[in-house]
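We close this part of the discussion by returning to an individual protein. Part of our work consisted of pairing the sequence of a single chain with a tokenised description of its backbone. No coordinates are needed to read the tokens, only the vocabulary itself. The amino acid sequence and the backbone structure tokens for this protein are reproduced below:
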Amino acid sequence: MIRRVSTTSCLSPTAFRSFTKWSFKSSQFHGESLDSSVSPLLIPGFHVFHCPDVVGIVAKLSDCIAAKGGNILGYDVFVPENKNVFYSRSEFIFDPVKWPRRQMDEDFQTIAQKFSALSSVVRVPSLDPKYKIALLLSKQDHCLVEMLHKWQDGKLPVDITCVISNHERAPNTHVMRFLQRHGISYHYLPTTDQNKIEEEILELVKGTDFLVLARYMQLLSGNFLKGYGKDVINIHHGLLPSFKGRNPVKQAFDAGVKLIGATTHFVTEELDSGPIIEQMVERVSHRDNLRSFVQKSEDLEKKCLMKAIKSYCELRVLPYGTQRTVVF
């Protein structure tokens, strides 16, 4: 079995300059896509693994799946050069009668203990509960509207428990009617510089699996992040690390940039500096006015946020050090 095949990685030179001193190695075993029609007895699953790098990890994980009659459709591995760390993600199909869900957890946990794994996570979308999330936003609602429509169409694999905003919305607006129709609660919590209403927010988001800041223009304190204790994902209206702070789109427009971007990242105590999950760019020119400039920026934000959330739910995003991510 070939364990790794060297590949060339295309990374943003601005955001990931320090990556250039590492080479990337990845392994893929390609088969039928999870979206393809398969036997009704077989259902898809994902597994991600993070442990110190030693010989035999891929063989052991593959044997575990094969021994239960499972079939691997895709396998990705990342081992950075000169670092004793191993990351992998597998996509497979299996018969839940032959391999019960609880037994699957136990089997992968046995391997995790053998290799002193830092993380071993299994997800079976058709059997496991959907991730519960809460959405926070301020005045602009283009990201919220996109998420609600994707969720309604079944393209966003989450359950939206509530929407929280520091801006009030009229009850007859499209957003409010949609939320009411689908039984999603809307909480208007006005904030001030002296009171960010964080205790109230923490109470509302109890029981969620992660939070999404869909253009929430308030800073979350370190106490809030520690109190919540789970991942918070933010969409930044700019190509980090450039144009931080207020109105980055206007900053970029005034600077006459030729590329605009959007960044989805994890929230940390330091403003706009959390590990990056996804980035997208689009070309602009002198022919764009501020209105078309803003429209292109908003479209990017929606696409970038949707892709990041989908990747997160499919276990494609793993922490790499303190400031980076591995995204399979």
Observations:
- The chain has a mean pLDDT of 86.
